[in-house]
Amino acid sequence: MNIREHTIENEKILLSEYACKSDCGDESRRSVQEESCDIRTDFQRDRDRIIHCSSFRRLKHKTQVFLLPKSDHYRTRLTHTLEVAQIARTISRGLRLNEDLTEAIALGHDLGHTPFGHDGERALNALFSEGFRHNEQSVRVVEFIERDGMGLNLTREVRDGIMNHSSGTKAITLEGDVVRMADKIAYINHDIEDAIRGGVLTNEELPANAVKILGNDKSKRITSLIVSVIQNFDGVIRYSESVRDAHDELRAFMFENIYNNSKINTEKEKAVRVVEFLYEYYNKEYNQMPRLYRELADKFGVERAVCDYISGMTDDFAVDRFIELFVPKAWRI
């Protein structure tokens, strides 16, 4: 047996009955069939393709919560993604689920996120006639945009997990459900840390009941949430009732005091205007977009291609394009 075959045999022994195995006997899990790798399973190949793609690298220059932060210590969309992947892998390991599938979904879940975080997403959602949701865009990235329009040809389990990582949806695998839970665990707790670092929150202001149940620092809270998921597993990914209530209280507190905080949001209207101006311009002048997006416009329509182009921009690139297109340059003799 080669290395991949040994891995598949080990999965049969080590993984839970609830896990999605790498060898499910279904040859149609990719849109385009490929010859198997001697070393890596399908899910390991998906993980590697995501890590090496352009959209993954651009996440390092996309806003998580704090817009265009000037400190290296604030989270970006990339560091958020890495934290989600680590939390999700820990949960999957504890439940004996497929870590490779879990990691691939986690690393790809935000590939379609816009510049300027959720404010950029809300702006495109309001502008685009069909609406814009970053989870759907992440799937478009891996299917139609990456590799110069060829896509990454990921397995359906990874694509499904990426599509269904947002609240209110259900993945076809428990590994996908784990990523959805890990996403919430990660962003609530690292956003608290960033808010404290940014001087808009103190640890003492956090809800006392939530702190009592989950812990008084980031590490303890993350550990409490992970342990609760593992200890309460019965075929469904969930917390205990008390931990769920504490998590929900903490999340509500963050939305009221941080995500809607005027001190944090002072520049966000400007970011929204940047997206609006770019959207209007490229819908009129779509031939000014790079070749790939012109081809996407011919295939899917101009509006769709403009969303593809803008959502793929980093924060700085979007600002630079706005300045180049709309800010007059000084005239020199």
Structural class: mainly alpha
Number of helical elements: 17
General shape? flat
What are the segments in which pLDDT stays under 50 over at least 5 consecutive residues? none
* CATH homologous superfamily identity of the domain at 41-193 and 266-312: Hypothetical protein af1432
Mind telling me the C-alpha Rg?
Answer: 21 Å
List keywords for this structure.
mainly alpha; 333 residues; flat; Hypothetical protein af1432
Q: What this model shows, in words?
A:
This protein is mostly helical. It has a domain at 41-193 and 266-312: Hypothetical protein af1432 (Orthogonal Bundle). Helix content is 61%, strand content 0%. Helix 9 crosses helix 12 (241-259). The longest helix has 24 residues, at 174-197. The relative contact order is 0.12.
Write the layout of secondary structure elements.
Layout: H1 3-14, H2 42-51, H3 54-58, H4 77-95, H5 99-108, H6 117-127, H7 134-145, H8 156-163, H9 174-197, H10 208-214, H11 218-231, H12 241-259, H13 262-265, H14 268-284, H15 291-300, H16 302-311, H17 315-326
Describe the structure in brief.
This protein has helices at 3-14, 42-51, 54-58, 77-95, 99-108, 117-127, 134-145, 156-163, 174-197, 208-214, 218-231, 241-259, 262-265, 268-284, 291-300, 302-311, 315-326.
